[in-house]
Design goal:
There is one protein chain. Helices cover 40% and strands 16% of the residues. The protein has 373 residues and is an alpha/beta fold. The strands form 3 sheets. Strands 2-8-7-6-5-3-4 form a 7-stranded mixed β-sheet, with helices on both faces. The chain has a 4-stranded antiparallel β-sheet with strand order 9-10-13-12. A two-stranded parallel ribbon has the order 1-11. Helix 2 packs antiparallel against helix 11. The mean pLDDT is 96. Bound molecules: pyridoxal-5'-phosphate. The site of pyridoxal-5'-phosphate has 12 residues, from helix 4.
Length: 373
């Protein structure tokens, strides 16, 4: 009996997304083995963090790199770094910022729930623009001497939606010496995001380690400017300041490095081809069946260049609602988690399916929809 069976915890086939509430992603065996090896000795944790950072910086063509305990922690440390630099007196005062830089600028329409992490440092988020549109003038007007940073949520499919493009944001920020932090948590694939946005001039680019990169769930990457990354480390564990509750173990540091090496060693094109095959299998299995239409959608829910299979239900004809289908999938054996799409559709995301699991998803769907196999 496995540990999950012993605990009465259901295993879930994840056709939804790299969701933290489902465990994020599955680490390759080599990552877990490297973590086991790392777990068997004591080391100097600051030295290890520095060395792994150097190696990751080299691999990702960045000036510097730091492993945080996830992208949310990377947001906290990046904001702290922009406020304190390497000043011990400032570091000790967080989150009370009287007299310090205490504002971070964010597009109103580009906000996602994760900016709470930035506010943990004590900064106030200053929104620019409206739900529809932000102008360069909005950004210029918002910058002043207490601006610590500009925070930008990366959504490649949003460029037409009225955000100031990233290159213009960088240019305006740098005219005034303000750093740009980009939350790119779920922007691998494409792996090139690890160097393309810092190559454009982004000061700090932040990634989840346990999403597309399939590293430890409790790891993340901060990539970019050396002086700011030194300031992230200065605020981070083991130093007993704002980052101390965001500890990163030696196992996560080593696991993250090995996961990144594996990702870079593979041909990403082949990975994306596999996603296409899985999506096609699902579309062929369901499109045109009574009460069903299936099609390929693109890009992914996070705007990544990856396909998904969308299956739309004629709820009346099937005498079943989409939500009942999703619930039935989760209650079955094995449980299957899919995303909802539109009013009566569901989406299958191949990114978190193992090879062949598309067949399990199709089989469970057929059973719930009472279709002949
Ligand atoms: C997932 C996510 C985060 C949080 O990342 P963790 O690695 O889970 O801490 C932050 N921002 C965005 C946009 C995300 O999608």
């Amino acid at each position: 009996m496995g540990i999950y069976e012993e605990l009465g915890i259901k295993r879930i086939v994840n056709g939804n997304a790299t969701l933290t509430r489902l465990g994020g992603s599955i680490m390759p065996r080599q990552v877990v083995e490297a973590m086991i090896e790392a777990s068997e000795s004591f080391v100097d944790i600051v030295e290890l963090q520095g060395r792994v950072g150097q190696e990751i910086a080299r691999l990702t063509r960045n000036e510097a790199a730091y492993i945080s305990s996830g992208c949310a922690a990377a947001l906290v440390l990046s904001a702290a770094a922009c406020i304190t630099g390497l000043d011990p007196e400032k570091r000790e005062r967080l989150p009370h910022l009287e007299g310090l830089k205490d504002e971070v600028i964010v597009h109103r329409m580009g906000r996602v729930g994760y900016d709470f992490a930035v506010r943990q440092t004590g900064v106030r988020l200053v929104e620019i623009g409206t739900e529809e549109r932000t102008t360069e003038e909005d950004l210029r007007r918002a910058i002043h001497e207490r601006t610590a940073a500009i925070l930008y949520f990366m959504r490649p499919d949003w460029t037409d939606r009225g955000l100031i493009p990233l290159d213009r944001t960088i240019a305006i920020a740098h005219e005034r010496n303000v750093p740009v932090i980009v939350d790119a948590a779920a922007q691998v694939p494409p792996v090139s995001t690890l160097w393309s946005i810092t190559g454009m001039g982004v000061d700090l680019a932040l990634f989840s380690g346990g999403k597309g990169l399939r590293g430890p769930q409790s790891a993340g990457l901060i990539l970019g400017r050396k002086d700011l990354i030194d300031a992230c480390a200065f605020n981070g564990p083991p130093h007993p300041f704002i980052g101390r509750p965001m500890k990163v173990g030696k196992e996560e540091m080593v696991g993250m490095l090995v996961a990144l090496r594996l990702y870079l060693a593979q041909d990403e094109r082949l990975l994306l081809d596999r996603y296409e095959r899985q999506v096609k299998y699902l579309i062929d299995a369901f499109n045109g069946l009574p009460g069903l239409t299936a099609r390929r959608t693109f890009p992914s829910e996070a705007g990544q260049p990856m396909p998904r299979a969308e299956i739309v239900l004629d709820e009346r004809r099937l005498e079943m609602t989409r939500d009942e289908v999703l619930q039935g999938l989760m209650e079955g054996e094995p449980a299957v988690s899919l995303a909802s799409s539109g009013k009566s559709g569901l989406s299958v995301n191949p990114q978190t399916l193992e090879e062949g699991e598309e067949r399990v998803v199709a089989q469970r769907l057929r059973e719930i929809l009472r279709l002949e196999a």
